[in-house]
Amino acid sequence: MASLFVIEGQDWSSKAIIAALDRQGVSLSDLENELGVGKNAIRNVFYRKCGRYEEAIAEKIGVPPALIWPSRYFSDNRLTA
Question: Which residue, 53, 58, 52, is CA-closest to 17?
């Protein structure tokens, strides 16, 4: 994936994730409402593995979670989740 904001094989920055969601017309608040979680709860995904939030974000963007957070899914070139 060629992009100014994303480096292949590295976790996307929170700004890149927010921009990708915005491009799809979705905000973090929209996702929180959809998932029924509290305000700013989904931001935990930027700091630690949160499978439910990762899947929701990836689904809205249209890519697998492992593409957004390869460090959480791959170890020594093997799938870990």
Answer: 58
